[in-house]
Amino acid sequence: MSSDLAARRAAVLGPNVPTFYETPVHLVKGDGVWVWDADGRKYLDCYNNVPHVGHCHPHVVSAIAAQAAQLNTHTRYLHAGIVEYCERLTAKFQTQLDQVIMVCSGSEANDIALRMAQAVTGKTGIIATDNTYHGNTMAVSQLSSRKPPIGGYADHIRRIPAPDTLRPVGGTADDQAAAFARELQTAIDDLEASGHGFSGFLFCPTFANEGLPDLPQNFMKPAEQVVKAAGGLLIADEVQPGFGRGGETWWGHEWLGLSPDVVTLGKPMANGHPVAAVVARRAVMAEFRNAFGYFNTFGGNPVSCAAAAATLDVIEQDNLVDHAKNVGAVFLRELHSMDHPSIASRRGRGLFFALELETDGAADEALAAHVVEYARNHGLLMGRSGRNRNILKLRPPMPFSNENVAMACDILQAAFKA
Ligand code: PMP
């Protein structure tokens, strides 16, 4: 039945729409940190940061159902849902980040952020890290490195090396931060010389798609100064780290002590309902609205806001940010006790971890693929990332427990042994 579905999927969706795994997992049900396939097999989900408060959380499900039964429409009518939600959301940020645009995907949010940088500076040059991903619109995909754009990267884009745990540039933590800021300054100078000018730096505060490097907490401070001195916008893409994923703080930029001009949000925001947002300083918002205006048919509709508000409720009521810190510390300790000569680095914060695999000093993509496949066949779902796809990525729903940690690590250890 699943193979039949896979064939029909390929026939109707077209080529190059990959599923994970050699034999795709055909999921039919989720609950908390668990998902089930069509044969009734249960998997522990360590892949997914979208069902942030757990798959099918009853509070979120009933909020969606109740609002869907009441009213769903676009945002050109007055509705309390979007106002109340955005008030609650902005209260989680530094006071100057106090206005919101609700959208439906992280890609749309980043696309708006790029236009905000244009509106404020009157320039178009944008800088991102290499080996990143910020989304799939025409503008944003120019920053992403998964597949080079047709015709090559646009001339107004500069990409600087992302921080790298195993091969850091610079010795001490301060040296590394200074080296990164120097790269940024060089790219800014280059953009200014090219005539495009510098409008902003868009980065993920955990460099998650780049491989989740261990960052000194002051890593981005010199870079922030460079961006601000050059008059560009500092844009934090919180699609991966946002909503407490890293434990301790709600936002990745907060942990780094930064004051961004624009923050983009997505994935975990409404526990799987397509909700994303841009949070910006009001002066930035004013320039953007004046320059472009903006309307998004589905963004911020009543059902989306009900889903997002219910997700916030659960994070707050269940103290999931602290929980991520506490259980995450146990998880990291267990990862450190894991034994295999090819584990070159184990790192992470909160409930987001990376195990970087190298054999004889070189990225071991085959081993990473083997571990992910073995884990899938033994009831654990996880992913891979990094330039060489040799970094195991673990990112479970936030209510992950110590027992879940023990089970995940048992399977991982067995995968390494096998
Ligand atoms: N930014 C980052 C850092 C992401 O990881 C992603 C998605 N993986 C996006 C933006 C794009 O989000 P979406 O898929 O919702 O458009």
Automatic annotation (TrEMBL):
Domain of life per record: Bacteria
Listed GO MF terms: pyridoxal phosphate binding; transaminase activity
Keywords: Aminotransferase, Pyridoxal phosphate, Transferase
InterPro entries, per database record: Aminotrans_3, Aminotrans_3_PPA_site, PyrdxlP-dep_Trfase, PyrdxlP-dep_Trfase_major, PyrdxlP-dep_Trfase_small
Pfam families (UniProt xref): Aminotran_3
PROSITE patterns named among the record's database cross-references: AA_TRANSFER_CLASS_3 (PS00600)
Cofactor: pyridoxal 5'-phosphate
Family membership noted in the UniProt record: Belongs to the class-III pyridoxal-phosphate-dependent aminotransferase family.
Protein name: Aminotransferase class III
Organism of derivation: Planktomarina temperata RCA23
Lineage, highest ranks first: Bacteria, Pseudomonadati, Pseudomonadota, Alphaproteobacteria, Rhodobacterales
